[in-house]
Records
---
Amino acid sequence: MTNPYATFSERPVYGFLGPVIWPRSYTRLFYLLIGFPLGLAYFVVYVTGTALGLGLAILGVGLVLLALMVLLARPLGTLERYLAIHLVGEDVPPFRAAPLADDKLTTWLEDAFTSGATWKSLLFLILKFPLGLASWIAVVVVFSFMLGLVFSPIVVAAGGNVEMGIWEPTTPAEALWLVPAGLLGYVLAIHLFNGLAWSWGKLARVLLGSRPRPATPAPAALRPLVAQPVTV
């Protein structure tokens, strides 16, 4: 199924309603929903590991633990890059690994700690908890409200209450008026969360992917020779 946003100017109706049946919308919703538990897991691991590392630093083993916390950012960043590609649909190019001068462990560790990829991945993991929590709350609250409107006649028929502030439907027929509002709100919510997931993808592209290398001109020796006028 084609991206409804790609042809919005030519097919505005499909561009507005199409995201409701576009599979990518729901993989993005899933990405937003798992953002909080993943961010919470990262938060617990890093807070616990950093606290233990600082507490045991005087014994030396704490410094090793702190180093492991930093090195862990690379595989976790790779996991987040995979999720951004396959759930959000963002093209996140992998980091370009610089060639090592030798195969020594010390050289590899030096490269890992001085590489911007390590620290940018760590920054993404740190941001995952607060931003993931905010995204999760937004999805749960908005969709709970919209689905509540859609199913309000059933709720009222079952003896439940639908709180609308200044007005409360008392019969299923009265609650029926809330269904179109809920359906419209659902469509708008799909657009909202597609945009939110798109923003997550761009953040992943900046922090978890490498920038394209600028094009370099070909060496002069390889450039095509310009034909010179021949004088007789």
Note: The mean pLDDT is 84.
---
Amino acid sequence: MRTKSPRKLRVHFLQHVAFEGPAAIAEWMSARGHRLTSTHFYRGDRLPAVGSVDWLVVMGGPMNVYEHRFHPWLREEKRFLADAIAAKKTVLGVCLGAQLIADVLGGKVYQNMDKEIGWMPVRFRGEKATEVFFRGTPRKMTVFHWHGDTFDLPPKATLLASSPACVNQAFAFGERVVGLQFHLETTLESVAALVRHCGKELTRGRYIQTAKQIIRHSENFAANREALWGLLRGLETKTIGRGR
């Protein structure tokens, strides 16, 4: 992780709320020596030119992809993502970010039957695409969730992971676009921030844990980080391989 990459990539983060940042993703990127920039929509930041970035990381947030009335910047963000994907940029979306990518690619986003909040298992599918992005990752692992919406798999996308509460947990579109409904990037600090800012969502439900259950399961961070590192290394290799 600490070895710098042979070429610095221009990595741009899209952040929707102050308390849901890139966490462990930014740690890995910084250690690799990549150039990090960001757009904070909640502060009214402007988006960069698509040609000025190599890699987009789209973070989560409590809003829904269809709430244009309350968050007018969603339309602009979707256009930007569509342009980035058309330009064959590397794009990684987390939670809301994955839903935005799915929406842009033609997948329907809607309310899931159950909210899924806390540490719960996902199962990675035994397909070639899964091995490309999650090589060495256990077929079943416990990851962190915080979502109420889900999405239909976009046309030409490949399903990578599922859970009992949510069929479409991760997908790939081609070799450089990945959407994760779950949060591999979580740290103790980022999980605590979610509990602090969104704790009202921790009501009774089949797939909702209590704040105590969420905070105390620190043993899962290491495995989640290892899976994240593998995914980021693979995407980095593909991004550097095609050049700017």
Note: The chain has one domain: 10-112+122-139+149-186+220-242.
---
Amino acid sequence: MPVLCEGLPQIACDGLPSSDVSPGLRWVVNPPTVLADPVLVGESDADEFGASLYGSVIRDGGVYRMWYQAWSKDWPNDPNLEDVATVACAESDDGLVWQRPNYGVMEAFGTKANHLTDLPFHSSCVYLDPQAPSSARFRAFGYADPGRFRGRYTHRINRAGYFTARSADGLHWHIDSPEPVWAGSDVITCAYDRKIGGPLVMLKRGRLSGGLKRRAFLAAEWIDGKATEPVSALVPDEYDDLQARMRGFNSADYYGVGLMPTAGPTIGFLWNFRHQLPLDACGAAGRVDLSLVYQLERGGRWFHVTGRPDWLAAESAPPWARGGLYTAANSIDVGDETRLYFTGTIDGHGYCGQGVDYAQWVRSSKALRGFAKIGLARWPRNRLIGCRSYLSNILTLVPDAGRIAGLTLNAVTQPGGSLRVAIVYRNGQPLPGYGFDNGEPIAGDHQAAPVRWKANRPWPAVPENRSFWIKIEITNSILFAFDFKNQSVG
């Protein structure tokens, strides 16, 4: 059964249930702070040539755990097989300094003294399943292909596709079935969503669009051990091509999408793959940048932030990540901040050089501690998208009638700026004593500023037969999120 989320901040996104938005409000994205240095680089036999976060980072008790794709020191040793299904697991006490424990699970280079797991997937996303027995507390999804990957895994599956596996410890894994759960290829991401009582899963599929075979994404769920039928979620279009050309590329599609479920909208970190020329049947070479998308309700349409601005562009990333950016399957909250781990590469996707053998180039990256490294982007919690107003403008919210006992705002004001709140009936008339002039203005930088009324007036009890709206006057400020306190939860 879905878990209802109450008393949690809702990120302010265009299209949230509201009856009126003033013309002067503008939707903006809040760029993250990116650590200058990577948090994990290739420095062992298992990942000497690179560490790619086609995987997940979660907190398991007091320990951070990271499942990632490890590019071993003998990659590529066979031009006919890709070693892209080797999953390592690192651990950390603070999410900043990572260790490689010797798990003793997989033999590599004559020893089991390494941090490899036996999860046989490419693009492995892992989450903790609170409804599962201890023998299956970890659940993973990923892509596997016996025709492309190393032979040590091919006996577990019958054909290529997206599979799921379970584990008691996150190291020893059992594939549920030798048949794939869903058809598809390459990248799959997922994140546990309390609203649905299971993970939201995003699946890459190829499709024709604008005369070009492009990568698009479908959405599915895994509820009570059963997979739902995927539905179309994110499809590239001509506006993506325009965005690519504005940045010096030819066309675009989507290579992946990280996920951040919230009490309100579900946020996606979209991997925008911008193709460079010459172009083959499906763009293979180019750069990957990140933008924000969101879904307002379960199973609903996905939206881009107005204008589709980059949230994090590779060209503005640290030098080790300017070839392309690929996020973890999920973000994590740590205190008052949210973190998103990501892979940065020193070259664009598809190898963008000429006259040098690709395998030789990869081997040369050893001196750089791998061609792919894992970094960290972070931002104040619930501050991803916001509505900005320089002059005074109004955002109107529609809460559940008669059940609200308080409201907090996540906002930043500029000098001379403020936010004020009024409670009005649906005809626009304010409740007596609850107009804009009756509340205490909010100014400054606040993650959860409570709305207070003058003379310590309490929040009103509105009759059940009268519905009301909340109007927020935003002056030279950005509102990022809001949180209604519900009377039923005190």
Note: The helical segments are 238-246, 358-364.
